[in-house]
Amino acid sequence: MVQTTTNLPERVEDDAAAVRHWLARIGARYDAAGRRRLEAACELLLDCHGDAVLETGESAVRHRLAAADILFGLRMDADTLCAALLQGCPDHRDPGAAALAETFGPGVARMTADLARIEQLTRVEYVAEGGKRAARNRLAREENLRRMLLGVAEDVRVVLLVLADRLHLLRRTKHLDAERRLEIADDTRRVYAPLANRLGVWQLKWELEDLALRAAEPDTYMRIAKALAERRNERQDYIARVLAALRAELAAAGIRAEVTGRPKHIYSIWRKMQRKGVDIDQIFDLRAVRILVDDVPACYSALGVVHGLWPHIPSEFDDYIATPKGNNYQSLHTAVVGPEDKPLEVQIRTHAMHEHAEYGVAAHWAYKEAKGHDPDFQRRVVSMRHWLEQAGDARRDGDAAPLEGDLASAHVYVLTPQAKVVELPRGATPLDFAYAIHSEIGHRCRGARVDGRMVPLTYQLRSGETVEILTQKNAHPSRDWLSPHHGYMVTARARNRVRQWLKQQDFDRHLAEGRAALERELTRLGIEASPQPEKLAERFNLKTGDDLLAAVGRGDLAVGQVARQVGEPRAERREPPDALPPPRAPAPPREAAGRSDVVVEGVGDLMTHMAACCRPVPYDKLVGYVSVGRGVIVHRRSCREILKLSAEERARLVDVTWADQPAESAHAVGVELTAADRRGLLRDISSALADADANVLDSDTRTDATTDIAHMHFTVAVIDAAHLERIIARLKQLPDVLDVRRAQ
Question: What CATH class does 232-369 carry?
Fold first, then answer.
């Protein structure tokens, strides 16, 4: 049965008298400054809540006093008790919060602000669902709520305040209707008791679980309580006698050991009965003892002492040291018939095994409750547990310091206008929030309200705030959002969605350019067949016809090469099959006249120049333009200057092919790069070019100060087209690089 102790008067109708009684009972533990703060907090409590009455029929003043008294029982400092008394007066957004910090200090003000945010977040109610999917969703929500309670708290003491408030509410559930009792009990078992378990606050965990069972299943609770046939304090006295006997025997055997124990509480007994499908008579660990020793040999020596002191139950022995559990949990478990012929469970392990079981992957909350905790969350829970244990009995007024530095949460929890909780990394902005809700909301975002006030899109969100995104129908993302210097977003999801949108816009432009270029080329060649991009894409190892046309628009594919796959030119089709010339013998390898790298078809010795506009490299598809006075200007077939020629100028085009040439001959080609400007960008580009064996002949860089976008042009020496493709591929892999292409 649950036994509670309190410093509050049982029968006092007047709240002011109850406050005076409580202050008189607890004041001796705190120094003069602490007592003054507690007295001031009680005065503000009476003034703030007045005659307010809660759903349990209890006054708000008595409820706050009871929660503070629970924390007094945990030996918490005066600041923690002040925060418990001041919860809800004033709200953290109220101007009075500043006065609160002046009177009680910044620590109390922070704790009351955190409590207000937690109260707002925990008001969220979820619509009941059915089926397996609903069960998974419910478990995810419960886990999210536990994470939220730990994440919102800037100070570990705030979590204890929440648990104390919940515990006193449970103590008063007998005054509520059955449906409300069941709701509170269910929330406690699923969220608050596991949270107390994770923090190792056993006193609260046991009572939360027992009271939740009593509220949800009163008949079951009373049956187990009667079957125990003894009160909790009697079981505690029994454990105390067992501990004394064990310590004496272990000391006599020369074994250094730390011996602790506690009676099993009713909820734990009920859980084991449910899990094993047995009655209480077959539960052997109603009373449990733990022995911690220095090394493994001492574990087995202590086991011999226990079995020599009391007869053991053979079927209840497990050696998890020789055969650890799957989570590497190690310990010796045995059950004996202890004094007064009562069964007693004994666990024996080393200090290192105990540390692993409590804080490592073998810890009950990490192994049994959920296996998907992220490292930051586990780090925060372990840090809180260490703080609580180290503070322990030494907690006095002012000794309990708030969490700082690496103990702070890495997440914030904010609300949608529909009261849905959204978890985001610390430092997240309204844009991160918008993209977390839906990509389209992020794309069309043009402003944000936080708790009803307009904020910039670079505003860093805080836990407990309600965020409303303002959108416009025709709005779209800005490249500025990707700049790390502007601070618009911190989440990878938001950045990736913006990059995808911008890439899609470039894709659409290339698609239109490629379709227009292909139509012009088909007209020029006199090909009447309709292009079928989907079929053509397969020949070029591309997924879709749009990908093919976009590749033409980017210049990755020569438009003439694609056009000739559509059909033959009209002039060639007019010739009947029997008019085709006889096959010619293979021509010998051609050599370039003089020192030229190319051969002009049908011409022996003719001066040639490589076009500066497109800078052909082996083995681009070539075409020559017969100029006046400069010989043949050699272009790539996909060169934009060639595509813009008029019909008269096209008559001066001649076929040009690459001649046999030395394997290492180099050609200058331009590369254009666009990237989000950042520190070290030029260094990374230089490294990538060096890795690709590219010799930079010239470079030019411009940065747009309004967008922080860098535009770079490089002239590099390449061996052939494959070498150029390797260079472009290396550059595209660099972080923050938005686009790399061959200069046109």
Answer: alpha beta
